[in-house]
Amino acid sequence: QAKALGRNTLCYFAPDMLATVTANAAVGIALREGLREKQFVVHYQPQVNLQGLVTGVEALVRWNHPEKGLVMPAAFIPVAEDTGLILPLGMWVLETACEQLVAWADSAETANLSIAVNVSAYQFRHPNFVDMVMSAIKRTGIRPQGLKLELTESLLADRMEITIQKMGMLKDLGVTLALDDFGVGYSSLSCLKRLPLDQLKIDKDFVADVLTDPNDAAISRAIIALAQSLNLQVVAEGVETQEQRDFLANQGCDQFQGYLFAPALPLEALELLLRKPLADTTVTG
Ligand code: C2E
Ligand code: MG
Ligand code: MG
Ligand code: MG
Q1: ipTM of the complex
Q2: Residue whose CA is at the smallest distance from ligand 1 atom 25
Q3: Going by CA atoms, what residue is nearest to atom 33 of ligand 1?
Q4: Is 203 a pocket residue for ligand 1 (Cβ < 6 Å)?
């Protein structure tokens, strides 16, 4: 904060900053306990193709807090990142996803589903990250193609050589790589084309106003065109209406994720939904 005010500005430690620091410290302590007590759960949100078929799911972590109930990631992922607890939490989500892929491998309806796992920059930067992914794959015996890692644009601010090398090692393991929340960061065209990516995900902020804000429409169109020219799949997140879905489909978007189809669901609810096709509203364009 002081930095944002400029070099020669003194910044006093305001009481509300102290309150935030104290609250975050409390969350950190509770997180550690939550991990020990296995209070975390993974919900799964379907991703559908142009035909409206579910091709995979995104794993989204929730904290089943004994007093607060189900806590959403925005309330604890930033603290987990600041405290380093994102490492054990992230590994737990990854292992859970791998175990789910194994459980799904037995049945024809689910054997080809992919699971996307969010990876924080903090996790990706860890020197053992590739090894940890490799041992999760080996230990569970999944087909690596089923595992999709969602990386964030902030990695592109790091040393490119290292990022590209690590991504290459992950690709060598056979996993799929997606760039999440694309468009909100600052990736340049030139660095994007050097990355061994499979997918771009259009951030839901652009999707939200794609029909009403000409800027967001232009951005979505540009992202899709960019992805196509780099031979990447495009997934739109936060698709809430049929009109948004149709607009994006007409621009060339391949896959969709959002409340129009389903929110992130507990495993049992997701498996019920997989047994019947998603709303026929999805089959147009
Ligand atoms: P994300 O990876 O961009 O995930 C998409 C978020 O959009 C999810 O929020 C999802 O529930 C929400 N969403 C999906 N469809 C719609 C829609 O139609 N409308 C709206 N308004 N929202 C929609 P969620 O589950 O609260 O997760 C928020 C963020 O927390 C994720 O954003 C991701 O960055 C992070 N996160 C979640 N799970 C993990 C995890 O296991 N590890 C890490 N490192 N980060 C995670
Ligand atoms: Mg994601
Ligand atoms: Mg996203
Ligand atoms: Mg997002």
Answers
A1: 0.98
A2: 60
A3: 118
A4: no
